[in-house]
């Protein structure tokens, strides 16, 4: 039997990296911190700057590159132009100005601390100017603000920031090659290459990629679709890097955009999410391996300066810009409080820039310190912005100035969003009858159907259909269960129906529900454990229908026959 020291280095690195990520991640969650803190600590533990086992750095970097690609693939899947258009008058100029001003502030710190040239200073400033989408959306979601005006502005702001990061991934190699001379020309060339690549991908892949995965989705094998999603992400990324000299991660982002625009996007996100989370954890572990604890002790002023640059350059500047756009002070405070931090994209940029030789290895320590500190200080940051907003709202001068120009810049409420609708899970023999009944009365209905062919047929009949597994959060979110009035669980399996209903009631506890059952045991589970308002068993309803017909044909009054059927149904 092979001993531990005989195990392949890849196996040892992978197992220990994942095990430590799990352990430290669970500890971070117990301490009510984001799990990425634990992942970073796991990287520090197996990194070359701490004693003990040292992971295979090149191998970890390769796995991390896959993690970055899948991370940006997920961003692409959730990218919606409509999210930006709804708030573009605020988000587009606001985010660009904020990133620009924050980059100048961070760049000045980089020049002072590391003696960086213009290109390196710009990249270092960018690492301190981009908020973490994952942290910001989670903070807003925990506060129930994602669907509010503040949530829509923040999401639009983050979309613009994400696009700037994607552009930066192309520009960093240009900055590395150009040096101090010809940087503007190199950046322009890189931007044009990005536009050309995007146009080529959109023209060729807009129909081809969804059509290919659609064919796999119609088949009986679900794992082939899952495999197709991963191949689409990594295959497009590889083709982009080999054929267009574009970064691996950028290719994955465009693959996500292509699929996100199709009706395959929700299920594709659900299929890719588990693998994305695993490799993203490995990415954060690889970033933690960069951290030299002694470097933090050797440069405490730089680390503190980076933290201040994040709080002022992202949080403070965002707050002031939103006030300048005459956004209500309380809304501006919510947005700024959620954005006043950095995370995954900053790690991505600093590591990529170090590989390209744009930033020195010492630059990672202040960025990591700023990330740790800004996320830890988020509750205090939010409280500070809230108090500033409260003080402004109490000022007569502020109220008069804000009312002077009434919000052409404010996003209008999205009246097209689903509200007070019914969600029908399954469009088979039972669900199709329910759907037809609701359609005849013009009622608002969304169908979630797992079978691809059935979903396409229902869509052809004019129904609003989401294809995918309703038990996956990424699919269910598309049906907006938080604003629905009723859910009909036309699923053959009671256990699956319970899981779907638990998912819905996590965001909408008051929703009413009806479900089908096969036997008395299913009826008991649905009524007792889930509290559905109506559970229907097929055989019983057949019997009751025949009994009602028989009673009426034998002369029993309609009211008496109905009363008997109701009593039998209740009993």
From TrEMBL:
The keyword Hydrolase does not apply. It holds the Pfam family TrkA_N. GO terms for molecular function: antiporter activity. It is a multi-pass membrane protein. SUPFAM superfamilies: NAD(P)-binding Rossmann-fold domains (SSF51735). Keywords: Membrane, Transmembrane, Transmembrane helix, Transport. One of its GO terms (cellular component) is membrane. It is found in: Membrane. The keyword Oxidoreductase does not apply. Residues 419-536 form the RCK N-terminal domain. Gene3D superfamilies: 1.20.1530.20, NAD(P)-binding Rossmann-like Domain (3.40.50.720). The chain crosses the membrane at residues 66-88, 95-114, 120-141, 153-176, 182-204, 224-240, 302-325, 332-353, 359-380. One of its GO terms (biological process) is potassium ion transport. Belongs to the monovalent cation:proton antiporter 2 (CPA2) transporter (TC 2.A.37) family. PANTHER family: CATION_PROTON ANTIPORTER YBAL-RELATED, SODIUM/HYDROGEN EXCHANGER FAMILY/TRKA DOMAIN PROTEIN. This is Sodium:proton antiporter. It comes from Roseicella aquatilis.
